[in-house]
Amino acid sequence: MTDIEGVCEPRFAAVREALAALIAKEDVGASAAVYVDGEPVVDIWGGYGDADRSVSWERDTLTGVNSTTKNMTALCALILADRDQLDLSAPVAAYWPEFAAAGKENVLVRHVLSHTAGLPDLSGLTAVEELYDWENVTAGLAAQAPEWEPGTAAGYHALTFGFLVGEIVRRVTGRSLGEFFAEEVAEPLGADFHIGLSAEHDHRVAPLVPPPSLTDEYASSAPPGPDGARREYTGAAIRVRDVNSVAWRRAQIPAVNGFGNARSVALTQSVLANQGSAGGVRLLSPQGCEPAWQEVFRGDDRVLRTPMSWTVGFGKFGNTFGWGGWGGSLVVSDPDSRMTVAYVMNQMIDRDRREDNRGMEIVMAAYGGLH
């Protein structure tokens, strides 16, 4: 079996075994973490930080977690709501007046956070580099008309989620989403997670490894529907090589360009599973956490082509909430058992070709330790 480093309470030994099995079988390098009552009970890692298996995955290795970043962006909005600086039921235009254009005056903050705002795509985006221009992207979204009546349907806002929530946060606080997260979440908790990564951390980054038999031209796409057809998307495709680029790291794309590891992902999200605090640090009130698991929409998601339940910022799965990222990273929180489980890896799997259950294997192993 693969050498697994870190700490793991004996009752959660199945998590260590699951991670070791994944790395032995198909992962290159990976980390897993479990927090209960806001405290770490599993913090483990193993494997390699590069496709050539020449660099070990270390305790402080970071990697791009893609859409697992959305959990962090949503947490920032919930913190502002808990401080009465942001009203989840207010129109977005109350904070961002230009946004009222093109029939969006009734789009509410909660619509943006629950993927029901009708803005799943960035119209007119032709190159990934355009995502690095915050002012231009948000001005485009402010001018764009919704695809459906906001609040009546859901369609996963893969990229737009971060720009929409991020601009609301910027209008309320005067800070970028990355700055707000760093100062109000990561720093108080001591969490090694970054939305936009500065050069000092580059040496710790494990690049994402494309799925087996694919190259770094491999691009993200919406999944095909039950009929095999895909939702039409004419914008720029994001490839593995983009996500591994320095320009991507430096940008602010708060839906998708977070960098961390399982420890930092689980630590930040355990705040919501543990009534607003982790490691003795309180970020929001117990009541302020509740929108994370209160359903806002249930039905077929027009982009994901599958039935979904969305809360204010998260996917809801039974009594749990959370979200995962392109390639395989995942975080799941269970407020009933006050547990958060995270899995972060560098080896991507193409879900069009085969199922990726790696993160869920870690989650299920963690549940075994609760009993």
Verbal overview:
The structure is a single chain. The strands form 4 sheets. The chain has a 7-stranded antiparallel sheet. It has a 3-stranded antiparallel sheet with strand order 4-6-5. Strands 7-8 form a two-stranded antiparallel sheet. The model has no long low-confidence stretch (mean pLDDT 95). It contains 11 helices and 14 strands. The protein is globular and about 55 Å long. With 371 residues, it is of the alpha+beta class. It is 28% helix and 17% strand.
Helix content: 25-40%
The main β sheet shows up as: 7 strands, antiparallel
Radius of gyration: 19 Å
Residue-averaged pLDDT, rounded?
95
| SSE order, one letter for each helix or strand | EHEEEHHHHHEHHEHEEHEEEEEEH
Strand order of the largest sheet: 1-3-2-14-13-12-11
Tell me what portion of residues adopts beta-strand conformation. 15-25%
Notable characteristics:
28% helix, seven-stranded antiparallel beta sheet, single chain, three-stranded antiparallel beta sheet, alpha+beta, 371 residues, 17% strand, globular
Summary?
This protein is α+β, with helices and mostly antiparallel strands and 371 residues long.
List the helices and strands and how they pair.
Layout: E1 4-8, H1 13-25, E2 29-36, E3 39-47, E4 63-64, H2 70-82, H3 109-113, H4 134-143, H5 160-173, H6 177-189, E5 194-195, H7 240-243, H8 246-250, E6 258-260, H9 262-273, E7 277-278, E8 281-282, H10 286-289, E9 297-301, E10 306-310, E11 315-317, E12 320-324, E13 330-334, E14 339-345, H11 358-368
Antiparallel strand pairs: 1-3, 2-3, 2-14, 4-6, 5-6, 7-8, 9-10, 11-12, 12-13, 13-14
Helix pairs in contact: 1-11, 2-5, 4-5
